[in-house]
Write a structure and sequence with these properties.
It contains 20 helices and no strands. With 486 residues, it is mainly α.
């Protein structure tokens, strides 16, 4: 491929890719604030509203590995643009939906588009920017966008819902169309330099079905029951499919996911940390929203505005993190970021039923936001460090998958724990209107979330290579790339 040579060309490409990543990330949270309005308009029961969010998560998490490998083999820009078309179509159909089933189907289509876009976009960043200081700066922007997206989604969702909930879906269409028009001009095609001409269809079916069933089992576990035959059967089915995928990959000449990529210790450690990070952070946004709306009585718009400090701190800390990684390495930066996240969540666990925004939300938001910025940047850098150009899409798909599966698992576990604690105060009809009971449930969830973040920090210390982190610093100083592992 002919490379983008000038900083201006590269920065234009990065701006386009980052804008798309922002659109994808906020879509996982933008509908949260709009759910009550959607339920009232489409006559959807409260127990079924979660599937408007879960349908997106389900297909996004299930198809990420497939999307990453398609980007490597078929072309990263090509799959990026195909994903944009699918995502825009799903957004438009969701905006015109007149029933629950139609809206859930449209959200699933959005998730499929996002699963094609996300790994292609990240692998384009890693191939456009040379490993070292240049890529660290680019991934600093990427981390700021990814980290702030969750908070900004709630903010934007609150503003748009005040006008019309359908705008939270329609807003994606002009953005996707604009990116689609600019992509051929600003992005160059790239794909793995390989003679592979066949595609591992059995492996693709097995891993996609296995991951989708796993996410489905996790997000529906609270409603079906964690120990129910339905949940256990789904988990068993997912395990069988994923075990079958491993067998297929070991016997296939051109596997969808060459297991040789796991030779990289830092990649393995980054994905373990990514799983636990997703478990702690995805649920954080959910429970902050619950506390603001159900305990403090905030409107959708006021809830969205309340996230502004968190969003701003993430953006600034991610920029600082990219510079810090170049100076001290991604491992200590990641551990410090996760430590801050744990402290922020511990502070959140002290929320009070008679509390206030200034006393109970702003302080921990600033600490957790700083931790988010110092986490997303180094974990992304670590996840692609030492990979070859042929592995860019696969590595990008892996870290996205780890975080999405972690997010689904974390939300399922923490919602279950929170609900169980709230139920200790009495019947559901009474506790749902009892601020003290709700606060106790949310507090317990924040506390366990802090444990996940702390576990991620400890496992990062054990599993992520200090040598790779130091070599990355030295290479950045020399303006070189870290060599791929043999």
């Amino acid at each position: 491929m002919t490379k983008l040579e000038t900083p201006r060309e590269k920065n234009r490409a990065l701006a386009l890719l980052a804008m798309t990543q922002f659109m994808i990330v906020i879509d996982a949270s933008i509908t949260n604030v709009a759910l009550p309005s959607i339920g009232a308009d489409l006559k959807i029961q409260q127990a079924d509203l979660s599937w408007i969010v879960n349908a997106y998560t389900l297909t996004f998490g299930g198809f990420l590995l497939l999307g990453g490998r398609l980007a490597d083999l078929i072309g990263r820009r090509r799959m990026f643009m195909v994903g944009l078309v699918v995502f825009a179509l799903g957004s438009f159909l969701g905006g015109v939906a007149g029933s629950q089933g139609f809206l859930v189907g449209a959200r699933a289509l959005q998730g499929l588009g996002a699963a094609l876009i996300a790994p292609a976009a990240l692998s384009l960043v890693t191939t456009i920017f040379s490993e070292g200081a240049e890529r660290n700066r680019a991934l600093g922007v990427w981390g700021a966008v990814a980290g702030a997206g969750g908070a900004a989604g709630v903010l934007l969702g609150g503003v748009l819902t005040e006008i019309d909930w359908r705008l939270v879906l329609f807003v994606n269409v002009p953005v996707a169309v604009a990116v689609l028009a600019l992509a051929p001009r600003l992005l160059l095609e790239s794909k793995a330099e390989t003679d592979v001409t066949s595609f591992d269809i059995p492996g693709a079916v097995a891993v996609t079905a296995g991951l989708a069933l796993l996410v489905y089992a996790l997000v529906d576990a609270e409603q079906a029951g964690w120990s129910s035959g339905t949940t256990l059967g789904r988990l068993a089915g997912a395990a069988v499919l994923l075990a079958g995928f491993v067998l297929i990959e070991r016997r296939t000449r051109h596997p969808l996911m060459p297991f040789s990529i796991f030779r990289l210790q830092t990649l393995r450690g980054a994905n373990v940390a990514g799983l636990l990070t997703g478990m702690s952070l995805f649920s954080m946004f959910l429970f902050i929203s619950f506390y603001l709306q159900y305990v403090l009585g905030y409107s959708a718009l006021k809830t969205g505005i309340a996230y502004l400090p968190l969003s701003l701190v993430i953006i600034f800390s991610a920029g600082a993190a990219s510079q810090l990684v170049t100076k001290i390495g991604f491992k200590p930066t990641l551990m410090g970021g996760l430590g801050l996240v744990a402290v922020g969540l511990l502070w959140f666990s002290r929320i009070d039923a008679d509390g206030s925004y200034l006393a109970d939300v702003v302080g921990p938001s600033v600490i957790a936001g700083a931790g988010l910025g110092f986490t997303f940047v180094p974990i992304t850098i670590a996840a692609v460090t030492g990979t070859t150009g042929e592995e860019a899409g696969l590595a990008s798909g892996l870290i996205n998958t780890s975080q999405q599966i972690g997010g689904a698992l974390g939300v399922a576990i923490l919602v279950s724990i929170s609900t169980s604690r709230i139920a200790d105060f009495g019947p559901v009809q009474m506790t749902q209107r009892n601020p003290a009971a709700l606060t106790e449930g949310y507090s317990r969830a924040f506390l366990i979330g802090a444990g996940f973040a702390l576990a991620a920090a400890l496992l990062s210390a054990l599993f992520i290579s200090s040598k790779d982190s130091k070599e990355q610093v030295e290479a950045a100083r020399r303006g070189e790339a870290v060599p791929a592992a043999a």
